[in-house]
Amino acid sequence: MHLSNFMSSPIAWISLLLALTLPVQAPAAEGPQRLAVEPFVLLPADLRQPEGITSNPATGEIYVGTFDARMPEASRNNQLLRYSPDGKLLGRRSFGATPLTGLAYAQGKVYILNFGASRLQRVAAGFGADTPVEDVASFGALAPPAPGERRIDNPDGSQDRIQYGAAGFPAINGMVFDRAGNLYVSDSFQGAIYRIEQATRCSPCSVQTLLRDPMLATSGSLPFGANGLAFSADERVLYINNAGDGRVLRWPMAGGALEVLAESIHGADGLLFHDGLLWVAANQVDRVLALDENGRIRMQAGEFQGHDRNGAPRGLLFPAGTAVSGSWMVVANLSLPLTAREGDEWEEETRRWTLSRFRLPKTP
């Protein structure tokens, strides 16, 4: 049929109008952006298990604490380390047998969660081997030591009830400051979030139990519940990782119930909010994931790529925390074996411990 004859028919005009008015199909959505990880720092040969990490946003200096929990205790060598933005070791301070977890920088001081001593401590950011360490606050057993039971509604209409146990040991793990200088600390065993008012000014400081909830405890294979903490940009929401449950939680600071933001992030450890994204160190999948505030994974960095000839991991192996230094994200590779069985974990092969890094992508 000639085109002019076709267009003279009513059916042709109706078809043309429909084609013009129907929405254009959007291009397929892209998946998470993949970010390449590179080696950054090889820790001194006498140190192992870097866990806590933070940075000075003004200078880019990086601070790292170790979680050396070997037995017997006399074999441990826990240290706080200070690195330049280009990875040069500038200082180290011994903490002996007590493992360290979360670190935070504020007003010229590095704040340290001394897991082994159940204390919050601080030290001058330019510390050396003999710089005094100040005790800021102590944590103890809560009553009751475990939060209440968790109730789970199943698809078949039944309900599970999980009751948690705890021996009263305060497993202080992650922390974050708000802009007013108040400090928030997670307790992975007792299922709690603590608040220390004006933590940069008080000494000694009092500890307030801000939140206790069964969603902060875990019965998962990884025996740590509440872990990394981060605030939203407006500080209206506190984000909380539950490592054992593999969840990122959100809690409105104005009050309300804990909500699940993201699921199935196995080993959700350190947490950092940066440029509109939540960066989660997922220690059991050897990746750092960037979530938007709807919980969708937008970026992912790293994977384990074996050990080099020195026994140092290539890529990421049990990443425990992150810190921003300039245009880089620096990652602490804890590389910690968890199971009693031998031969089932790559972490058992680690002989030297490392920091890795990746270039931060530009965000809209």
Structure description:
- The strands form eight sheets. Strands 1-24-23-22-21 form a five-stranded mixed beta sheet, with no helix packed on it. The protein has a four-stranded antiparallel beta sheet with strand order 2-29-28-27, with no helix packed on it. Strands 3-4-5-6 form a four-stranded antiparallel beta sheet, with no helix packed on it.
- Helices cover 5% and strands 43% of the residues.
- It is mostly beta strands and 364 residues long.
- A hairpin with a 5-residue loop joins strand 17 and strand 18.
- The protein is built from two helices and 29 strands.
Please give the count of helices: 2
Low-confidence stretches: 16-20
What is the helix content? under 10%
| Biggest beta sheet attributes | 5 strands, mixed
The main sheet orders its strands as 1-24-23-22-21
Task: Write down the oligomeric state.
Answer: single chain
Radius of gyration: 24 Å
What does the overall shape look like? globular
Quick one: how many beta strands? 29
- Share of residues in strands: 35-45%
Distance between the termini: 51 Å
Question: In a nutshell, what does this entry contain?
Answer:
This protein is mainly beta.
Secondary structure topology:
Blueprint: H1 3-7, H2 10-21, E1 33-35, E2 38-42, E3 50-55, E4 62-66, E5 78-83, E6 89-96, E7 100-106, E8 109-114, E9 119-124, E10 134-138, E11 150-153, E12 159-162, E13 172-177, E14 183-187, E15 192-196, E16 208-212, E17 226-231, E18 237-242, E19 247-252, E20 259-262, E21 268-274, E22 277-282, E23 287-291, E24 297-301, E25 304-307, E26 313-315, E27 319-325, E28 328-333, E29 354-359
Parallel strand pairs: 1-24
Antiparallel strand pairs: 2-29, 3-4, 4-5, 5-6, 7-8, 8-9, 9-10, 11-12, 13-14, 14-15, 15-16, 17-18, 18-19, 19-20, 21-22, 22-23, 23-24, 25-26, 27-28, 28-29
